[in-house]
Amino acid sequence: SNSLSIWGFTFVVLLVWWTSGRSFAQLGFAPPPPVEGQPLLIIGVFAILYMIDFFAELKNPENLSPENKTQIGFIPVTMHEYLHFSFMAFSAAVTEEILFRSYFMNYLISVAGTNTPGIAIAIAIPAAVFGLVHLYQGWKTVIKIVAMAIFFGVIYLHLKNLWALIVIHFVVDMVGGSIGLLLAAKKQDHR
């Protein structure tokens, strides 16, 4: 139901955007530009840091505890749950990038300006709100998500396009979901 709710909210934002005469290209839906130079470097640094964290999470024995599943109930531990998780990951990738990176950042830039403080505000506020929206996953995860959102905000400002971010966000969520499957298998091995 969360996935459907966020789709509904995103649809309203897109409808308001469209009925006010703005193009979807301004929202970040132009054909994707080549990802090269500084955006590619930022994506590479993010990928390396994400993989380091991913393997650290797999090695952490606390993650094998049953409380972990009850703390974050949507993490899949079976392949059937992983398939349902895929829809949630796709929904989150598309809708959250539209709302937090594109719409929210564009709005803040229009209010705060395109100078350095304005850009910092346009990156920091959506990143903080995005992190807090995930508070149910715990403060450690909020901090990671805020850092990820800052990376994503910088990438969005360089590319002015959502396609790469939607793909990266989807991959991040699917990899995160695979942690549940891997930890469940690891737990079975420890029995």
Could you outline the blueprint of secondary structure elements for this entry?
Layout: H1 2-19, H2 25-29, H3 38-59, H4 66-71, H5 79-112, H6 116-133, H7 139-159, H8 163-190
Helix pairs in contact: 1-5, 3-7, 3-8, 5-6, 5-8, 6-7
Account of the protein in words:
The longest helix has 34 residues, at 79-112. The protein has eight helices and no strands. It is mainly alpha-helical. The mean pLDDT is 85. It is globular, with a radius of gyration of 18 Å. α1 (2-19) runs parallel beside α5, α5 runs antiparallel to α8 (163-190) and α6 (116-133) packs across α7. It has helices at residues 2-19, 25-29, 38-59, 66-71, 79-112, 116-133, 139-159, 163-190. The protein is 80% helix and 0% strand.
Which features does this protein show?
80% helix; globular; 191 residues; mainly alpha
**Beta fraction:** under 5%
Instruction: Tell me the number of helical segments per DSSP (H or I, 4 or more residues long).
Output: 8
Q: What oligomeric state do these chains adopt?
A: single chain
Which residue ranges are poorly predicted, with pLDDT under 50 across at least 5 consecutive positions? none
Distance between the termini: 35 Å
User: Shape from CA axes?
Assistant: globular
SS elements, strand count: 0
Structural class: mainly alpha
The radius of gyration over CA amounts to 18 Å
Q: Name the average pLDDT.
A: 85
Helical proportion?
over 70%
* SSE topology string: HHHHHHHH
**Biggest beta-sheet profile:** none
